[in-house]
Design a protein that fits this description.
The protein is mainly α. The chain is built from ten helices and no strands. The protein has helices spanning about 5-10, 15-30, 35-45, 65-75, 75-85, 90-95, 100-105, 115-125, 125-135, 145-175. It binds fe (ii) ion (FE2).
C-alpha cells in the first residue's frame, strides 16, 4: 500500500478525522459555518493522495486535482478552484492565489494534539518523509524529537493561518 493511500485510510489525512478538523478550522478562521458545497470540498480535497507513492514528491504535489474534478463536476468551477488551490505548492505552480480552503487546511493542525497526530503519521510512514523534508530545508534538525518537530510544525502552520485570519478581519472591517 502506498504512503498516500495509508495517509487517507489511517494517517495524517484520515478521510473522516482530517475533514472534521478542517471543518472546525474553517469556522474558527472565517467565523461562519461552511456551506454544504464547501463541506463537500472539505471532505474530498485530499482524496487525490490515494495511490500516491509519496506525499510531497512530483506526483504528491498533484494530489488536489482529483478532489477538484469531483467538486467541479458536482458544483462547477468555483468549487473546482476551491479544491485545486487548497495547496500552496499547487497554487504557486499555476501562479494563482491559494483558495480559502488552504488556510483552514493549514490551521486544522492546531486542533490535533501530538498524541493523535504523531501515531498516525508514524504508522502511515508520512512522519519520516515530513521529518526528512524539514531537515532538508534546514527548518528543524532530524535529531530533534518528534514532539519538538510537531510543536514547531504546528507553530509554523498556525502562524500562516493566523496571518490569514488578520487579513480576513481587516477585509471585513473595510467593506
Ligand atoms: Fe487537507
Amino acid at each position: 500500500m502506498t504512503t498516500g493511500t495509508k495517509s487517507l485510510l489511517f494517517g495524517v489525512h484520515q478521510f473522516i478525522w482530517h475533514p472534521i478538523t478542517v471543518w472546525i478550522a474553517w469556522i474558527w478562521l472565517f467565523r461562519k459555518l461552511p456551506t454544504f458545497r464547501e463541506t463537500v470540498c472539505i471532505i474530498v480535497h485530499d482524496w487525490g493522495y490515494l495511490g500516491k507513492a509519496q506525499m510531497d514528491d512530483e506526483e504528491g504535489i498533484q494530489h488536489p486535482e482529483f478532489g477538484a474534478v469531483i467538486a467541479g463536476k458536482l458544483f462547477g468551477s468555483e468549487y473546482y478552484d476551491l479544491c485545486l488551490l487548497h495547496s500552496r505548492h499547487y497554487a504557486d505552480r499555476v501562479s494563482r492565489e491559494p483558495s480559502p480552503l488552504c488556510w483552514a487546511d493549514k490551521l486544522s493542525i492546531i486542533f490535533e494534539p501530538w498524541w493523535l497526530y504523531l501515531p498516525r503519521a508514524w504508522v502511515s510512514g508520512e512522519l519520516f518523509e515530513y521529518r526528512a523534508n524539514s531537515a532538508k530545508t534546514g527548518e528543524i534538525s532530524i535529531l530533534a524529537s518528534h514532539r519538538n518537530w510537531y510543536r514547531h510544525s504546528q507553530n509554523v502552520l498556525k502562524n500562516i493561518g493566523l496571518k490569514k485570519l488578520s487579513d480576513v478581519i481587516y477585509s471585513t472591517q473595510n467593506i
